[in-house]
Specification:
Blueprint lengths: L4 H15 L4 H4 L2 H7 L16 E5 L3 H12 L15 E3 L5 E3 L8 E4 L8 E4 L3 E2 L2 E7 L18 E9 L1 E2 H7 L13 E3 L4 E2 H4 L3 E2 L19 E2 L2 E6 L8 E7 L12 E7 L4
Parallel strand pairs: 1-16, 3-10
Antiparallel strand pairs: 1-2, 4-5, 6-9, 7-8, 7-16, 8-10, 8-11, 12-13, 14-15
Amino acid sequence: MGLTPAAWTSTRNSIQKLLSAHEPSLRDDKQLRAKAFIKQSVAVMHLPADIGDYTDFYSSKDHATNVGIMFRGKDNALMPNWVHLPVGYHGRASSVVVSGTAIRRPCGQTRPDETQPPVFGPSKLMDIELEAAFFTGAGNELGSAIPIGKAHEHIFGMVLMNDWSARDIQKWEYVPLGPFLGKSFGTSISPWVVTMDALRPFRIPGPVQDPTPLPYLRHDDPFSFDIRLEVAIKAAESSDASTVCKSNFKLVTACDVYVNVCFTCSTCTGQ
């Protein structure tokens, strides 16, 4: 992951060749297969990388508007800077966990009654966020910029993410410095990274940005992806899961990119 795009592609091609039905190296070597493969039933999945940093971008207009309505009301939902720059904040890398890890409901200050002082206790407004995150590989020197046209050379691949949120804690604490304890108690990601080479066939132009971004944020590459996303929730006492959200990654406005850093492209909620 910390190498170059050429190394990523070469490694992927080599693995695909070894797993091909037409390649005898593994196919015809029983002892080598026994060493190379582990039964899925006994495999333990881990984080795909040691995550050194984690940044969350607010890149879905619908999500930014919905949360703004929740916290500030309909008339002041979308902040004026959102349409001009990539809005993001640093998350807590140490609480990013592999999907399936138990998440403890956080305690914190909330103010359910705005006429009364805040109270302390467990969150009563736990929320999920369907997100797509990406890992960067080769970095840049401190103080040097990565041109937007070169950003793709630093993106290794993508994972699904659930950025757990305690909305009542978040609402009380986020002014003026942004999310803190309401967002840092747990972030789940899938153990599998889908490389950008694998996603290339699904690449499409991104949403039209209005107003036009400043020159340093403009690029002509079709660098969004047609990825259908869905969330289903299964209650402990239920035998069936209920679908609560359907969306598509193509609704997300392109993020600006800054070894092993995880970025998230915001909650992928549509209209």
